Amino acid sequence: MSKEVQAPNSAQASEGAKEGSESGGSIKLKKELGLHNGVAIIVGVIVGSGIFVSPKGVLTEAGSVGVSLMIWVACGLVSLIGAVCYAELGTCILKSGADYAYIMEAFGHLPAFLYLWVALVIIIPTGNAITALTFAYYILQPFFPTCPSPDIAVRLLAALCITILTYINCSNVKWAARVQDIFTLTKVLALIIIIITGIVYIAMGNSENFQGSFDNSTTEPGRIALAFYSGLFSYAGWNYLNFVTEELKDPYRNLPRAIWISIPLVTTIYVLANIAYFAVMSPGELLASDAVAVTFADRTLGPMSWIMPVFVACSTFGGLNGAIFTSSRLFFVGARQGHLPGFLATINIKHYTPLPSLLFGGIMSLVMLCSSDVYALINYASFVESSFIGLSIAGMIYLRWTRPKMKRPITVNIVFPIFFMIICLFLIITPLTSSPKECFMGIIMVLTGIPVYVLGVMWKNKPPSFTRSLELPSELHGDSVMGSHQIQNQRVCVNAANVKVRGRAFVLSGVKTYNSAIASLVVC
Fold it and tell me: How many CB atoms lie within 10 A of CB 518?
């Protein structure tokens, strides 16, 4: 006797709870992340290399110590307002994927796909590659104190870093969360060392760098916008917990709590760290340094100054781990919606991790390590990423108008999203006049996704040869839900349209194939 069962839709899948395969329940990503893991993800992703390396970017455009510190505080407030808006989005649209899921809900498939396309091709792999290169540079710096590290050694070590973290994330969600917790504590410890050292210097009377704090301050809107860009770069990642909403325990409570704990904590640490930098270095000395934290350690820690490059490396390692963990869920959700090949929406049944998505993201990051223009690519994509964040907030305002009765466990005052939209518009429009080439290249990157969408998503009657070319070979699936494998001695055979299970019912969690056909089960 045969019985056909429809796979659960994406809304049902977004509940994220694991139901045991023994009872024929859904195979889903497990809710293994608590409040402290959520805080560790946000803090761990935000505090990367930016605060250690690039405070001079804010000072260069701000022109003075006083305006520089004000911009660091303002960037923290802007990030907090954005994160609070995302808390409403993340609890009323309880799906992983963050911006992708919110744009999809508000504006439909094409805008969401274009965000997914740019994230897939440029934003995520280039960001991961740059973070890994930064990690490798600082790890190797003590071994090459008088000369630059060999480029091939830096790239190989960066590749090893990406490979190890991808393996950890493939193996166990708890391992990945534990790595995040440990390295988040490490980077916070490094900043505490900087802050305490700065306080000691100020207590000893070294406050001359704060005299005339607002001398030479800029008043040009374009330069203020660029200073905000540099500051917000160091706060980037405040929305990353929304990428893994389905794996967060009690998200209605833990998502906003994690935001309210982590963003003010990071803002306080950042401002105090900058005060410590100015206590030890003059503005001119800070602008002359390529790695502010390392110069700071050379001035203050004497023979122990070598620990700072190690701390910076640990910081980037933890940041990269958080980025790999969260970004893989974006690919997973995109495939589940039919916007990417279906194999990316599969889950390893042994570890309950999105193994193909993690491997795909790792390979894309390794490919970017081979590019000599990786830094140029991320500059082009920064404008686009800011635009899509603004689009997500616009979607929040739009849903307030079109779906006023939508269930919203958290509802923020409408002033906050409107204010954040104004900030986004300012940050989007200003670079169009100051850096038109980068903005134009970013727009081209977005537009290249339109023909891909037409061929991959809108074209329903694809030839079988085209569809087969997008499937992952069965031997690469391993213990994933889709693919040819054994589940308790039961053979599972997969093609592009359905899953045939001989034996007990086995349900996919909302997986769709690339041509958007709903996966169905035929239980024999």
Answer: 16
CATH (domain of 153)? 1.20.1740.10
Residue 279 structural domain: 33-323+355-458
Question: Sheet containing 3-6: which strands, arranged edge to edge?
Answer: 3-6, 520-523, 498-501, 490-494, 485-487
Our measurement of the distance from residue 427's CA atom to the centroid of its chain's CA atoms, rounded to an integer in Å, reads 20
Residue 410, phi then psi, degrees to nearest 5: -125, 130
Q: C-alpha dihedral over 100, 102, 104, 107, to 10 degrees?
A: -130
3-state SS of the chain: helix, strand, coil percent to 5?
A: 70, 5, 25
- Residue entry with tokens 């053979």: 491
**Greatest CA separation found in the chain?**
86
pLDDT tens string 63-118: 888 888 999 999 999 999 988 888 888 888 877 778 888 898 889 889 999 988 88
Q: What is the DSSP string of 133-150?
A: HHHHHHHHGGGSTTSPPP
pLDDT single digits (tens) 502-519:
332 323 333 333 232 222
One-letter amino acid of 347? I
CA distances from 33 to 38, 55, 293, 297, 404 (A): 7, 32, 32, 35, 31
Answer yes or no: is 503 within a domain: no
State in Å, rounded, how far the first CA of the chain is from the last one: 6
User: Does 479 map to a domain?
Assistant: no
Total domains present in the chain: 1
Tokens of 402: 């079109």
Q: Is the dihedral of CA 86, 92, 94, 95 positive or negative?
A: negative
pTM comes to 0.71
DSSP letter at 7?
P
Structure tokens at 398: 């739009």
- Cβ neighbours of residue 210 closer than 8 Å, sequence gap 6 or more: 65, 278, 279
Residue pLDDT, tens place only, 236-248: 778 777 777 777 7
pLDDT band at 267 (very low <50, low <70, confident <90, very high): very high
Q: What angle do CA 429, 432, 434 make, to 5 degrees?
A: 110
Q: Indicate the DSSP class of residue 9.
A: -
Which three-class secondary structure string do you get for 112-132? HHHHHHHHHHHHHHHHHHHHH
